[in-house]
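Box S2. Input/output pair 1.
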Amino acid sequence: MVRHGIKDASSVKRLLSYLLFNAAQLTTPSKLTDIAGVKSSTTVLEYFSYFEDSYLITLLPKFSYSAKSQMLSPKKVYVSDTGLIRAGSVPLTENWGYFLENLVFLHLLRQTKELYYFHENNRECDFVQLENGRLKNLLQVCWELNTDNEEREINGLLNAMHHFKSTKGTIISANQQDILYQGDLEIEVIPAWKFLSTPPSSCV
């Protein structure tokens, strides 16, 4: 705030607290003006850039072959240290799924900067990992795969697999391990400890 001459400290703190509380979720600057208590989405964008420069957050773009579409689409916000999520926000309920997704993001970010989320037909895949412009992995993250979320999580991943013509995808969970088949498509469900301790396998 001192570096950028920001006088309204409360708006910066409100916005940052909101982002910490909503880690790993989609965000649009125009919808955050009331939360931050500012009049312009341009101000929110400036605050975003200050947070990124301070290594507090990273914004993940949507995968698109169009640079304009990437720029205009909502971004997913990830916090640079998962400890900040608990220290800097006051959640009413624990959301371990988003916490785990943020942890996986940080792990992937150490491997590549070619990282996106995928959203199409109202279905979302958490991570599209590229290597030199070519697909390496399609990854979905959820704390627990169960009857309440199984259809959503699997269909989001399958949608991305069809788009990229990939026969393999991965779901990262807290503790589950399994292999699911949809025709000739294979989805590996692996526990987070295994994913974080070994490099993820490449898609085919």
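Box S3. Input/output pair 2.
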Amino acid sequence: MKLNRIVFQTAFLAIALSATLLVSAAEKKGQAKSESKTIDSGSFGVFLKGARVATETFHIQQGASSSTIKSELKQTVGTDPVTQKSELQVTSGGELVLYDWSQSSGGSLTVLPKNEFLIEKTSTPAYSKPAEHSFLMPNTSPILDNNFFIHREVLIWRYLAADCKPEGASFKCQKDPAEFGVLIPQETNSARVRLDLVGDEKVSIRGTERDLLRLNLKGDNFEWSLWVDARDQFKLIRVAIPADDTEVVRD
């Protein structure tokens, strides 16, 4: 596709963008403080060389002033499968409130904003005192955990919310790539990633052909392909990681 922008002739983009984590406080003015709604929930199957090796169960809840993204990843192979859990809280303006991660085999971490920094505190079974790391990054920096694919959906929503503008009854999305400075907590590291909007593709999901929107996510050492459903609030449907022979599919 050689067009420099993509036109969506449906109302679903408006629904999806209002459902993102970047909704302004003005849009929330009339919402009761106690009111919250589920934006997305479900599970992803993680397949290595065609065999299912893990399942990620997730839930995104949006409140009046903040949103919470909870996820649990369970291995389905091995004699002692490991379970990982995460909880990401962000304000309606996209600022980080809290990120927590833990795993059943031991170990946990927490990321918090502190002045102009992000602070990560890491605990392991071998050390009683948490190690602390500082990152000179704004509190709007996305969290991109290695093992939770729902974080990629949140990043895509953020990209589309910034890049898609209303025009009459439809939305037009610029096709220019966008770069993000992200924090990768498990690596105790920051990185630059790039999202490219490729366009509409027909994709086979469990033997059924679907019209999905493809984006490419690239970093220094990786390249992923992601497909979302523009007719269903831009929910993430499939991820392909060719270098690892890995595929992730929404159940």
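Caption for Box S3: DSSP finds two helices and 17 strands in the chain. The radius of gyration is 18 Å.
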